[in-house]
Write a structure and sequence with these properties.
Elements: E1 3-6, H1 12-20, H2 33-42, E2 48-52, E3 55-64, E4 69-76, H3 85-99, E5 105-107, H4 114-122
Parallel strand pairs: 4-5
Antiparallel strand pairs: 1-2, 2-3, 3-4
């Protein structure tokens, strides 16, 4: 049995530990406590944690730009997979985005993360082949 609740900055350490222990998840300096606090404040109630008892066993971060939704860092502890946690996290995020009029969302999956890619395909998400994503870093820190 599990429960979901909105992620708060008080969950930061437990979520980061879970992320660090999960293959396929890439953390950057942009995932600092300060930046995550700003993200959570900008997108209140859209990022979630999954709990088994008092332990965080999954999470998803979600936000929007006013037109499109963006999901990041979906993960479930390997010992708690195949229980519907990932699906529940995604469904709750998409429902919250739909409530505010956002009906198209995106997820980035790192190349080589076959488990992540297989999950999203199995859920009906479409791999985009019509665009390439470009990034620009306005800092000397290339890990931002």
């Amino acid at each position: 049995m599990f429960s979901l609740r909105p992620m708060t900055i008080d969950d930061y350490d437990a979520v980061m530990t879970l992320m660090q222990q999960t293959p396929g998840i890439s953390l950057r300096d942009a995932d600092s406590r300060e930046n995550i606090a700003r993200y959570l404040a900008r997108n209140p109630g859209h990022s979630l944690v999954a709990l088994s008892g008092d332990n965080i066993v999954g999470c998803i971060m979600s936000g929007h730009d006013g037109r499109r939704g963006y999901l990041q860092h979906l993960l479930v502890h390997p010992g708690h997979r195949r229980l519907g946690i990932a699906n529940a996290l995604v469904e709750r995020c998409l429902a919250a985005l739909q409530e505010i009029g956002i009906h198209k969302s995106h997820i980035d999956v790192l190349k080589g993360n076959e488990i992540g890619a297989a999950y999203w395909r199995s859920q009906g998400w479409q791999l985009r082949t019509d665009i390439d994503r470009y990034s620009f870093i306005s800092s000397d820190n290339q890990n931002i």
